[in-house]
Task: structure prediction
Amino acid sequence: MKRIRIGIIICDRYRRCAGGKCFRSLRDREGAFTEYKNMAVEIAGYTNCDGCPGGNIEYAVDEMMKNGVTVIHLATGLIVGYPPCPSIPVFSDFIKVKYGIEVVYGTHPIPQKYFIMHDQLGTWRDPEWGKIIQPALTDEKMRMAYD
Ligand code: SF4
Result:
């Protein structure tokens, strides 16, 4: 079985988060972790961005790669907060260009309460956001399970 090590970077606004939904969804291969259904996955790095404008992005990935991380997940919290992180595409481009590793938008499924609110706000109507939310969007039943 293929083995992979991933790193998760969360939004500093959720800095006290113990990672409950991220760890659960990885265990059950849900949300942005669906792709890992037939792989053994280890979370080898977990940190936050250190607050706006996200200075830790510049350093954390280097440390994670030393522990064998080959994919960085920008956590679902960056996508669902009010407002969502305005720098998420910049973080993704920066990590890919500087470190040459894969970046995935999201971790656990988007909780339904956030989906409803952002739908009302029109946050994700922009095509760029439409792409960003895809891995963690799932369906209503799954979103309800993460409310
Ligand atoms: S909004 Fe973005 S830059 Fe600001 S704390 Fe959250 S992840 Fe970091």
User: Anything to note?
Assistant: Residues 11-13, 49, 51-54, 78, 85, 87 surround iron/sulfur cluster (CB under 6 Å). Helices lie at 20-28, 57-66, 76-80, 88-99, 112-121, 127-137, 140-145. Residues 2-108 form a domain with the Rossmann fold fold (CATH 3.40.50.2300). The CA atoms of residues 33 and 98 lie 24 Å apart.
